[in-house]
């Protein structure tokens, strides 16, 4: 008799295959689920393997469009960067995959979900928090044995050669830049054009894929960092985020061009908070909903075009234009005075200095005030 | 009869020469002061020009070492970046120059200081706030006429050709990277070594100059941005910060490697505050003193070596080592369990999920709680 | 010939009467505007005085309802408190008055506005920033002479007797508490009931007036503080905010009862920002619009009833109930285990301790890590 | 044969007595530890009970002075308040007790510590995090059975009558206020004087005990709140903090009087962080060390005397004086102009309005900017 049905996030690799077998041995029915979020994978081979190992049902689904629109775009709006450097690529993938896995579990009447993420990593946390948030009654069976086996394989499967899959080595990248024009509306890209080739893309998935292609070709977005995991350990991470890096630079530029200085400052704090929440697995939480909502509001005027060149691992902003910019050439120009009275600047400075001068006066002060 | 003595921050250029003449015409005695903070300038020509225009006294002083140690190093500790992109090069120079100018004013018995910064820019504010903070009784004479003249010249003096002085165009930069090792103590660099050449530098000024040289050679640190000035206008800025960019990347890496996660998070907020204060001209203020003090405390364990390669406008971190790192290879390794019990992770996740599940439960809840 | 028309914020007192006369002497046509925001004033006497001093037109308008709904309610949602103590009473009144004054100026074709607030206070800033924000072309004529005269009178007009107008001395207040029930929806009060008397109010103005009455009767909301003005000076302020103090306590209670912990934490930061903006006169600014928008979002679930007693200057929360509370008596109760597994708490704690134990391990550590 | 030695935080009550017996049954040697932190307890009775139940050794220690100096004083400096209302009384006691318990465990060679705090409360977390932080190798044995028993007793032991032990009901409190003068140095109280009686105290423990006495006599510091526990649940808390409430009000006043506005603002954020850390049990953590260090720095000028009256549950600030105040009566007075030029205020306001007017201009703007 079955102990119940498990929906397993299945990769086709050794780890999750082992978990599949182990779950069946324990008496569970196993449904495998493999999400296509753009990774380089032989999906048909994975399907056959799952079936051959006894999966009761096999789901292989293309989530790429919703991954870009529902998860990557909000991260772009937020300028999401964890600890000043990590662009959160895998962190935003996890809730996307788990959301669909929970939907399958519900529709298939499965009481359990499982996955191959290990006990010390962030991915286990991200996966399980999403499942609990969206399907509070769910259980996640977990086996020390399976986990330990898995652990050993991970250790063996360390890639001995080049770790980078998406990006060329900048030293081997083209000697001629690509020049792109990225158009934004509401803080998300709506079109990318290769200026020299005249080629353009305008669906979210096409835009993001094209940016990955161009960024990859020029070796953009490689980092080798030490990061602080949610559970408090430091760990080394080697990441490549070619398209994300181009988008971050372009979005930062358009945002600073169009958003009010003080709104941007408050939004910067919310973006840092958003990045921590996403890194820690709290995409589906009241606070992350709230922060995303506020950030989206701040992006209403982030509209316009950014021109940039991509070359040897770098992204160079060349210029920008916007129908909603707060940039006022006349005001900033030194030839035109307009409403701006240089004398006001002196007043502004002297008032700002009142406190500084008082502070100076009190160094060495010996009397006593009473109020 | 003299109206008093003015110490004028003099550059030798058309603007401040004009101010010098105008101040003399108004009846002031003028002492000129020209600080060497590493700019490319013919200091002797400037001296002669000042004398020929009637300066009562001419000070030309090499502030490079104190500029690096007292102003750039604290900015390195802070990872100081304004609005996510600008590395504050000129913003940190201003208080350094004004500090010395005020000392001269005091020792020469001058009641006035003056400068050539314009009414709409940040530099006027930075200059004058520093002067008021350090010499509260000082006056800064300012003339609309002089200002307007100046303005026109500035407009005329726009560089028609290449704007960049310190950095090579990355397209023309060497096809072979330089590999550097930077050693930090207390969050500031104490030594830089060119790994291939074996060459090293260990005084602050030598280290910083060498990083400028290597960064410049590889086209590192060029940005073209729109920024928000203190007074609220947006303006375009084109900056090059070769050495600063290398230091920022290296310091970020060493800091994340050695500083506790939560300390770093709090310090990150202080660093953003520091950057705003410095951008806005408040280097000499009680709050900037306080923030610098706290940031310095956070840097006590930022000690170790970072290896990096500089190539085609980019800085790539290659590795790091530290006697004070919190990185625990055994703990992070998946083969060794040590104190870490995978079962704990499940408890950790389930407790973190308590709130998320309650939140889900309440969507669509219709009863009423009373306490 | 007239120099143009000025709309003067007129109080009927000596200061603004003097400004009225001075403006006429300078050749302006003067329209006076007196807003009723609940202060104790003889409005008809003020009308006659303005007319007798030559006002071309006299506006006296009851803004009480919009003051409560548009300005006080958002402050209640924000738990607005400046520097931990000041409830921003006058700070929220200023934009309300200036908004209407600007509307009058526009509809009457006046190019100028004026007021009696002094040069060192916050009220001048609040008044003028609002006018510039809503009517950028406006001018505000200002006279040193008028100002100085005004200043002297202010000095003379210091109230010699009891400073407090709205609140009884707690020592003389009733020896029996009033017990109120306040009902909230979307974070603002929709009804107040005096539990013993059965009396209730349900329009915003009636609710707020009644809370002022009850609070005043019991001596609630008196403070004597030193505060930091926008321009950097410290000044003493003596305030009484009876209704506002009751609302703050009740709202805090309902908010903590109904809003998710982490949402509340982020909102707390936004509330502090809101308070600073309002204090400094930036009610009408892009950032204050943004912050109000975000705060309003956070209040969607702040719904329910708070019971409280008002007695001898204090507000005591007696209990609360809500249809949207996240309070789960079963979960919190120690008899019922439900989903909560005490073993999870140990895991949660041990994971939180990983970082603390590593930190301890490294005190006195002498090896070197390399990654 | 013994399984090892446990140091048990023992209260003499039913819960911890049960744990003592259970630990012995499991084969542990048990050392009991009872800390006197000012609670009303029959310490000798507890000693006899522990001995009669088989404790191998009994420690009863007076930690009151170190509790006040090492734990309460830093909380006073921080204005520590959790979620705007809770003054963290029990939260600061926990690390004080656990610190000593760990010292005993080390000196007695005990490998284990135990306590009677339950699985859902904050106190278990605070206790265990402190132990792990200070004695990373320690183990904390925990029994579901013991816990469940304990749980039931707790349910039975609910105080049926008045919950408040330290404070009088304000309705029954004296009809005459006490007037106190509190003197601060470095942000902590160094002396309290009862102005009418002339009585004064000047050791930390005496000062705090006296404030508890006076506050209690007048019914100060009772709150009935819902709070968010670390683990995410909301729970009701009823607290009384008479001395702490007086100190919070007095310290807030002295701090605002003496500390620079912007320093105070940054410190306010650090104080909120401190409060969360302490509430969550992270007193002994790198980040709490860091925050305490920074806060202490901000308190260097918090020196002077505050006069206040305590009456019917309220604390009223009457006045303050300080040798280090930034309050400048001349500057703030409207009769004296000094360095302050009213014209500067206009410039200050107009510059602050530049951004607001631009924002207004752009509402409805249709052109396009390009840079």
UniProtKB/TrEMBL annotation, chains A, B, C, D:
GO biological process assignments: argininosuccinate metabolic process; L-arginine biosynthetic process; urea cycle
Catalytic reaction annotation: L-citrulline + L-aspartate + ATP = 2-(N(omega)-L-arginino)succinate + AMP + diphosphate + H(+)
Pathway(s) it belongs to: Amino-acid biosynthesis; L-arginine biosynthesis; L-arginine from L-ornithine and carbamoyl phosphate: step 2/3; Nitrogen metabolism; urea cycle; (N(omega)-L-arginino)succinate from L-aspartate and L-citrulline: step 1/1
EC number annotated for this UniProt entry: 6.3.4.5
InterPro entries: Arginosuc_syn_C, Arginosuc_synth, Arginosuc_synth_CS, Arginosuc_synth_type_1_subfam, AS_cat/multimer_dom_body, Rossmann-like_a/b/a_fold
Gene Ontology cellular component terms for the protein in this record: cytosol
Keyword Methyltransferase: no
Species in which this protein is naturally found: Lates calcarifer
Subcellular location, record wording: Cytoplasm, Cytosol
GO MF term (any one): ATP binding
Pfam family, one: Arginosuc_syn_C
Record key words, sorted: Amino-acid biosynthesis, Arginine biosynthesis, ATP-binding, Cytoplasm, Ligase, Nucleotide-binding, Phosphoprotein, Urea cycle
Gene: ASS1
Domain Arginosuccinate synthase C-terminal: from-to ranges: 142-357
Listed name of the protein: Argininosuccinate synthase
CDD domains found in the cross-reference section: ASS (cd01999)
